[in-house]
Amino acid sequence: MSRSTTSKSLLTLVEGGIIVAICLVLQWIPNSTGVSSIQFSYGLIPLAIYAIRRGTIPAVIAGGIWGTLDWIRTGGGVTFGPQQIILEYPVAFALAGFVGLGTYQVVKAIKHDKLNRAYGLMLVYFAIGTFAKYLAHFIAGGWFWGTYAPKWANPWVWSLIVNGGSAVANIILAVVLFGILIKKYPKLFLTN
């Protein structure tokens, strides 16, 4: 391994650690939308920036670490066994790293000063990562949390409403924040 590759790997690792820390700190900000159980996950924004900067694999790893540490931070909360914990914490949060699938396209658009294209691509790949994360939560919601659904609601429909609503709320947040960031600070998404 060359010195520059080692240096880049170390920088990616350190940046990932910082992103995980930022994501955890953002978990302390009140995140309710005021609608029953639909919540913002503010850490998705810095994880998405990291995913575009560093790619899918580092973002998936950082997301999985964030999810694991978030479970520890909550003190374990209500759990239904190891399957539910693994699905809703390391797996769901790791899936959010799929935003990194758009790294090449977004970076290329920014470098060619096509900021509207970069913005559109960011939103598409953010939606992919967000829906992947909330798909895991949806499965856990129907499978494990179904007994908590209102008596009048099918557990799977209720899980779709709650988790789908959270996914949409986070995408709306991304529309606003990425619209500002990509126009004002496009170099934030670049590593060089």
UniProtKB/TrEMBL annotation:
The keyword tRNA processing does not apply. InterPro entries: Thia_Transptr_ThiT (IPR012651). The keyword Transmembrane applies. Keywords: Membrane, Transmembrane, Transmembrane helix. One of its GO terms (molecular function) is thiamine transmembrane transporter activity. Gene3D superfamilies: 1.10.1760.20. GO terms for cellular component: plasma membrane. It comes from the Bacteria. Pfam families: Thia_YuaJ (PF09515). The chain crosses the membrane at residues 12-29, 89-107, 119-144, 156-182. This is Proton-coupled thiamine transporter. The lineage of its organism: Bacteria, Bacillati, Bacillota, Bacilli, Lactobacillales.
